[in-house]
Each structure stands twice: as C-alpha cells, then as structure tokens.
Amino acid sequence: MRIEFSGGAGTVTGSSHLLRIKDKRVLLDCGLYQGRDEKDRGNDVFAYIPSTIDVLILSHAHIDHSGRIPLLYKRGFRGKIYATPPAIALCKILLIDSAYIHGQDAEWENKKRSRKGLPPIEPLYTVEDAENALKLFEPLDFYQEKEIFDGLRINFIEAGHMLGAAITELYIEEESRKMKLVYSGDLGNNNIPLMKEPKEVTEADFLILESTYGNRLHPDTKTEEDELIAIINDTYQRGGNVIIPSFAVGRTQELIYILNEYAEAGKLAPGIKVYVDSPLASKSTDIFKANMSYFDKETQEKMLKGDHVLEFENLFFTESVQDSMALNKVRKGAVVISASGMATAGRIRHHLKHNLWRSECSVVFVGYQAVGSLGRILQEGIKEVTLFGEEIAVNARIHSFSGLSGHADRNGLYNWVKAIRKGPKEIFLTHGDPEASEALKTLLQDDGYNVRVAREGDIIPIKDYIKLVPEIDVYEMKKTAIEDALLRLRKKELMVKYIESIDFERETEIEILSKMKTILKKQ
Questions:
Q1: pLDDT (tens digit, 9 = 90+) per residue, 243-256?
Q2: What is the Cα–Cα distance from 522 to 245, expressed in whole angstroms?
C-alpha cells in the first residue's frame, strides 16, 4: 500500500490523496483549488489518470474537498463515490452550483477572447458533468462499516466540521498484513453551533491529519459571539451595514443559529434586519432543516421545545438578482450574509463594493481566509481594492473571528491525536499553509510522534519512504520540488504515467531517479 499526495498538501484547498491498495486505486476527496492555490496549481489537470480510479471516498461536501468530482467524471472516472447521506444531499446543490459558476466564468472569458480574435475556451466542467457525477454517489451513514472490496473496509465517524462531515477509518488487509489508516478530513472545532463534537479514534497505524489552524488557538467561542453582536449593534448605531462573507454551507447556518439566540434574548437591536443573500445558502438551510437528527444534543433539545433554531423574526432569504441588488440601496441596519466565504466570487463582492468605502459600515470575517483571497487581503489591511473594474477605498471597519471557525485549532488537533490510545506509527500533515503544518509538526514531534508534512507529489510506500525531492537538484531543474516538476509535465502525462507504473518493491531510488531524468531530458 502507498499514499500519493496529489492535492491539499502544502495548501488549504484542493484536498485529494490517492491510495494504492492491492491492484485498486482509492481516492480520498477530490477538491477544487481556490484563491492563490488555483493560480499557482490550476484545476484543469490531475496528478493521476481519472479513468484508473476505482473508488472515491468523500469526507464532506465543501468545494475544496468535492469541487473537482465533476471534472473527474468528465475525464473518465466511473467508480463509486461513498459519502454520508447529508453530504450527498449538499453535494447535489454545491456541485451543480459550482458547474454553473464555471460556465459563467467561461462565458465571460470568451466574450473577451472573441474581441481579441482568440478561440473560445470551455468551462472546467458543465452542469451535465455534475449531474452525471452525482449518479455515482452511494450513501454510507455514520458507524455503518462497509467492505468496499476484498482488502478494504471503511467506517465513517463524526468529524464535527459541518453537516455530514466524516472522519474515515480505513481497515486495510494486503499480503496478509493488516493496518488501519485514518483520514481526518476537516476536523471540527469544539462548541460550534449545531454540530456534534469530533469523535475520538481509539487506534490508528497511520494518520492523515489536517492542519489548517496548526499554529493558532481560537478565542473563546461565547466571547466572540458576544463581540459579534456588539459589532452589529454598534454598526447600526453608527448608521451603517454589516457585511459578512460566509460559506453558504455550514457557516451561514451556524450564524443563523447564533443570531437566533441573541434575537430571541432581545440582545439584537430591534431595527436590524438579517439578509441571507445566497440562493445556495437558502437551499442549504433547507437541507439542514431536513437533517436535524444529525445535530448535537443541545440543538435537538431546543427543537423538541419548539424552538426553530434556523428561523427568527427579521431574518430574510433573498433569491432573485433583483432582490440582491435592492440590498445595495439599504443604507442602515442590514446584516448581509453572503457567499463566497473568502470573498473570491459571488454576490458578496457586490455588497463589498457598495459598503467597503463607507466608514460607518463593518465587514466581519468568520472563517479561514486563504492566502491571496480578497478576504485575506482585507484582513491584512489593504487600503484600496479593485471590484468590477473600479477602485474602492477600504474605509469600513474590518473584523475577524477565528473562534467561529469550523476547524479545530492547534490544541483541538493535538488533543484529538493524544486521544488515540494505540498508535499512530506515522502522521502525515495536510490541508494547511506551510507555517501552520510545520508548527503542528513540531508540537507533535516534541511529544514523540513520527510526523511528516506532506507535499504535493510525495509518494509514500508504507514499507519504505523514498524521498525524491532533494535528489532532483542533480538534474538542474529550475524548480526542485517534485510537485513543480509534475506540474510542468502533466499535460503530456509522461511523468504521471511513469509514476503510475513504478514498482517500489523492485526498483531502487537510483533507478527511479534515472528514469525520471530520462523523461525530463525529453522535454
């Protein structure tokens, strides 16, 4: 068995890890690169041949974990996709929405290309691709262990990150050897609204662990909720609006839950109106309401008492473009929650254009902002941004809350690992900026764990780890990292095809590098 890290390694987006088990290829997630990751790595090519993948196991529905599934189908994948029932329900709207956005982006780009006399481009994938990919999904609920094929059984347990998010336990038997690999997916934060706490794992031989907040601690959640309400009320008194970029799935519903609590307690100023300006968020909220049996005990007890936790007076969902545009004329008292969560696309950018320049307004970030995203740039204090071709001054007050994040912080990750009573022999850190992953690596190593920070392109046989990257300097490549070499060569697929065929049991490191050198010389 071996692991090939082909996405979400050294980055916070694009999660995708390939397992070779016997003669089968199993993919853990197939996410979309976003923000700077999309510019640096691109979404249009894979580090593997899609038609050779037998099974895909999806940890949860967020686009940075699921967003390239339609492209995988488009390129020839026809295997089964296992996910929890709520995750599948959310994918049915998320992937269709993503396809629609890619179609719009291609249409916009082609108008510019046409004026320049350039040939048109096609979207990354179409709605039809997404609809066909969705036919491959098979539901597997939590704690329903299933044999996927001879030599692999899987079990989903609750990750606490968002509705339907799972930690995957993989029980592998190969050549009379048994091992257990655990894939954390995105591990949830403690005490977040609606969600259960991340379930502890009792044993693991190997662990693939996310590290988004590996170098940070979240403030107290209740304190941040109080501060959020104070910002909303203060902005109302100043005569402005509050703009909250939020992921349509998960974070938006958690915000509604929090605002419901404070509104019912009379702690939200009476003149304030909350607008969820995202058709996707509206559809997602309906799915949350239909899957309340997956919520935590506190939420379910409230519902039994008749508390509609995702509804309150002065909460409005806007559907049409016209309704969304009308919000830009509101000068005071609006709390606008809109996607995307990193402000990279969607209606939120229009709301920022109309409110960023107003000193009486506030912009509140309640989730992780990837490097290079508009959200991160605003957090870092930029004084002017370009939106829809217009320079916009940043006069609004910018606030950030990490305690409302759906990801575990450094201590949450560390304590979850410490709860594993047997093992792991080795931990592979993914889904984190380099500084976050390195900080978590140091913390765990100081406690005696064997830890590696995975890099895109790393190929790790469980019996023997071969480190390819340093030796490639010998061949005077302009970029030494194996992921950069693959990136330059993937379109011709020579390097990928060779990697697919490597027999790590028989070929030595020198032989592997020699053959790679031969391929590189052909370019």
A1: 999 988 888 999 99
A2: 47
Range from 169-178, 449-458, 498-507 carrying the lowest mean pLDDT:
498-507
Placement of tokens 């899609």 in the chain: 50
- Amino acid making up residue 160: G
Answer yes or no: is pLDDT of 491 > 50. Answer: no
The tokens for 18 are 């390939």
Do residues 253 and 408 make contact, with C-beta atoms less than 8 angstroms apart? no
Q: Which residues pair with 459 in a beta bridge?
A: 4
Burial class (CB in 10 A: 0-12, 13-18, 19+), 224: buried
Question: Distances from the Cα of 259 to the Cαs of 181, 252, 307, 308, 399, in angstroms?
Answer: 39, 11, 13, 12, 17
Q: Where are the domains of the chain?
A: 2-216+406-465, 221-400, 467-523
- Check whether 433 has a pLDDT greater than 50: yes
Token pair of 359, please?
């000193």
Amino acid at residue number 4 = E
Distance CA 76, CA 79 (A): 9
Count other C-beta atoms under 10 Å from residue 300's C-beta: 15
Helix (H, G, I), strand (E, B) or coil at 40: helix
**Averaged pLDDT score across all residues of the chain:** 90
pLDDT of residue 141: 98
CA-CA-CA-CA dihedral for 360, 376, 66, 424, to nearest 10: -130
Residue 497: band (very low, low, confident or very high) from pLDDT cuts 50, 70, 90: low
pLDDT of residue 505: 67
Q: How many Å apart are CA 163 and CA 347, to the nearest integer?
A: 24
Q: How far apart are CA 157 and CA 54, in angstroms?
A: 22
pLDDT tens per residue, range 18-50: 999 999 999 999 999 987 788 778 898 898 999
How far apart CA 235 and CA 364 sit, in angstroms, is 11
- 18 forms beta bridges with 4, 27
Residues 418-431 have a mean pLDDT of 95
The CATH number of the structural domain formed by 2-216+406-465 is: 3.60.15.10
316, 274 contact by CB (below 8 A): yes
Give the DSSP letter of residue 168: E
**Would you identify the CATH topology of the domain 221-400?**
Rossmann fold (3.40.50)
Contact 151, 174 (CB under 8 A): yes
Residues 6+ apart with CB under 8 A from 436: 211, 212, 213, 214, 215, 216
